[in-house]
Amino acid sequence: PRLFKPNPLNWTPEPGLLGFVGTLNHQPNFEGIHKLCCALAKHNVQIRLELVGNGVKEGKALQKEFPFASYRGAVDDATLQGLARKWTFFLN
Fold this sequence. Notes:
This protein is of the alpha/beta class. 37% of the residues lie in helices and 20% in strands.
């Protein structure tokens, strides 16, 4: 049997801060995030989006095209926990 040992984040969300963790050089992930960013930009929604994961070229391209997007790269677990604890929404 497996033991379930939850380790919840000390969640302190910042209004308007969203996060995504995934491989941005995986085309379906990139397309989905790009479409979301286009919709957010079109409606002038006041958010900040942190992108975490592999795909430096794609992450930097999103960051350049959308001023509300910030590419954080592939980070270690401790850094990810520090970022994710501030996210109001987690995109999956």
